[in-house]
Amino acid sequence: MATPAVRMFRRLEGLFCVYKPPGVHWKLVRDSVETNLLKGLNSTPAKPLPREVRFLTSAGGDAEGQKALTVSAVSLPVLSHHPLVTGPEFCNIRVGVGHRLDAFSSGVLVLGVGHGNKVLDDLYKTRVTRDYTLEGEFGTATDNFSHTGRVVERSTYDHITLDKLDRVMAMLQGVNQKALLMHSNVDMHSQEAYEMAVRGLLGPDGKSVPILTGLRCLRFEPPNFTLEVQCLNETQKYLRKVIHEIGLELRSTAVCKGVRRTRDGPFTLHDALVRHRWAAADIMQAIQGYHSSKKKKHISQE
C-alpha cells in the first residue's frame, strides 16, 4: 500500500511554470523548487508504525516469599521502521527545465516533475512559439547588446519616429517569414502547406536559426521603447541583438534593458507561480490545473 508521501508525489507528476526573477540563474530556481518539493513530501504524516508481539519476563513473588518469573505478551511498535531510523522517504526528486532563461532575463519558466519530464521533452521538440517583451533604449551601443555592457558608441535618436520604427519591424518580419518558409521543409505550392499555414502549424522542421514570427511596438517614448516578440528557436542573446539591429537600421544605436518571457507554448504569466508560491501545495494545484485545462481542450476538439 502506497504511503501518503508516495500518493502526494503521484499528484505532483506533470508540468507547471514559475516566474523566474531577473538576476537569478535558472539552476537556482530549479534547486529551490526541488528543495521545497522534498520538504513538502517528507513532511506528510507518516504511516503508523507496524507492531509486533513480544514476550517479556518479569520477576514476581509468591505467597511464601519465593521469587518467580512471569511471562507476558506485549504489543510494541517496530522501531526499525521509525523515520528517525530509516531517514526521509524521498532523498531526491528530479525536476526538469524546459526552454531556459539566462540569468539577466525573467518570466515564464516551465518545469516538469516525474513523468512530466517526458512531456517536457515532447514540448521542447514541438513547434510552439514563445512571447517576449523587450525593453530597449536608443542612443547607446554596448559590447553585449545589453545596458549592463561596456559602452562602445553613442548616437543621436531625435530623427526616429514610430512610423520609421514600424517600417523597420515590418522589414524584419518579412525577412523572418522567408526564413520560416525556407526551414519548413514543405512544398509551398502544396495543399499541405496551405492547410498547415491556416492552422498555424507551419514551422521549421527540427532545429533552425532563430525565427521571429511576430513583432510589434507596445510603447514608444524615445529614447525608451517596448516591443512584443513571438519567436521560435531563439536565445535571449539573439533577442538583445535584434534590439541592436533595429537601432542600426534606424541609423542610430540601441541597447536592450530587459527581456521578459510572457508565454511559453500553453503557459502564460497568469499560470506562473511567483517565488513565495514555490511550495508543494501550490505546485500541486498548478499541475492539477494544467491537467484539467488539457482535458477541457481535448473534449472541445472532439
Report the CATH topology name of the domain at 129-264: Pseudouridine synthase
- What does the main sheet amount to? 8 strands, mixed
Structural class: alpha+beta
CATH class group of the domain at 129-264 = Alpha Beta
The geometry reads as elongated
Backbone CA Rg:
30 Å
Strand proportion: 25-35%
Helix-strand sequence = HEHEEHEEHEEEHHEEHEEH
What's the number of extended β-strand segments?
Answer: 12
CATH superfamily descriptor of the domain at 129-264: Pseudouridine synthase
Share of helix, binned: 25-40%
Spans of at least 5 consecutive residues with low confidence: none
How far do the termini sit from each other? 37 Å
So how many helices?
8
Chain-averaged pLDDT: 88
- CATH architect. name of the domain at 129-264: 2-Layer Sandwich
Topology:
Blueprint: H1 4-12, E1 14-20, H2 26-42, E2 51-61, E3 67-77, H3 83-86, E4 95-97, E5 106-113, H4 116-125, E6 130-138, E7 140-142, E8 151-154, H5 162-182, H6 191-198, E9 211-221, E10 224-232, H7 236-249, E11 254-264, E12 267-268, H8 280-301
Parallel strand pairs: 5-11
Antiparallel strand pairs: 1-5, 2-3, 4-5, 6-10, 6-11, 7-8, 9-10, 11-12
GO molecular function: pseudouridine synthase activity; RNA binding
Family: Belongs to the pseudouridine synthase TruB family.
Protein name: Mitochondrial mRNA pseudouridine synthase TRUB2
